[in-house]
Amino acid sequence: MNDFPPLPGVRIELDHIGIATPDLENSVQQLSGLFPSPPTPPEEVSDQHVRLQFIDVGGPRLELLQPTQEESAVGKYLSKKGPGIHHLSFRVEGASIDTWFNHLQENGVKLIGDGPTQGSEGGRIFFVHPKSAGGLLIEFQQSDD
Ligand code: CMX
């Protein structure tokens, strides 16, 4: 258990599961056939070197991620581990994502980068290093709306 105090008012909810794939079109075609809603249009997040699409599966969505560069986070993951679950993404509510980033950092959690950056759908994101999260890659995200 972490021994630092909770941030008053903050709420965290699972938003989506990030899936690494070398072939976005093929994965989206396979997976979207299993669920009734159409996938979102492809979007590129250049800061993260990925092209992505979401599939609504009821509850948290699936986010299919294809790297646009071999030497990117998803590119390296694919070459080491192959396609599959890459990260879990949680929505931050009740506090700004900057406040949440600072709170975790001040309490010794190993975060990736210097602060939130541009994510998909106009949101801002940051990641907790797997070494500080039980071997999972955790993303936190927040949209303006
Ligand atoms: N889940 C769990 N562990 C992971 C991981 C993942 N997705 N990716 C890497 N790791 C682990 C590796 O297994 C390795 O562990 P060991 O040291 O025990 O072998 C360790 O992290 C280092 O891995 P690496 O291949 O050497 O990779 P790097 O250190 O260069 O990078 C990380 C790892 C997590 C810092 C990097 O992937 C990162 O910055 N991720 C955040 C950004 C990101 O993932 N963006 C893509 C998604 C974008 C989006 O959703 O918009």
Top keywords for this entry?
about 140 residues, binds carboxymethyldethia coenzyme *A, globular, 8-stranded mixed β-sheet, alpha+beta, 2,3-Dihydroxybiphenyl 1,2-Dioxygenase, domain 1, about 20% helix
The number of helical elements comes to: 3
Distance between the termini: 32 Å
**Which outline best applies?**
globular
| Ligand kinds | carboxymethyldethia coenzyme *A
CATH topology: 2,3-Dihydroxybiphenyl 1,2-Dioxygenase, domain 1
Question: Any guess at the CATH architecture?
Answer: Roll
Number of beta-strand segments: 8
Radius of gyration: 15 Å
Low-pLDDT ranges: none
Strand percent estimate: 35-45%
Structural class, please?
alpha+beta
CATH H-level superfamily title: 2,3-Dihydroxybiphenyl 1,2-Dioxygenase, domain 1
Overall tally of domains? 1
Helix content: 10-25%
What is the residue-mean pLDDT, rounded to a whole number?
Answer: 96
Strand arrangement across the biggest beta sheet: 2-3-4-1-5-8-7-6
CATH class: Alpha Beta
Q: What are the secondary-structure elements, in order, as H or E?
A: EHEEEHEHEEE
How would a textbook summarize the main sheet? 8 strands, mixed
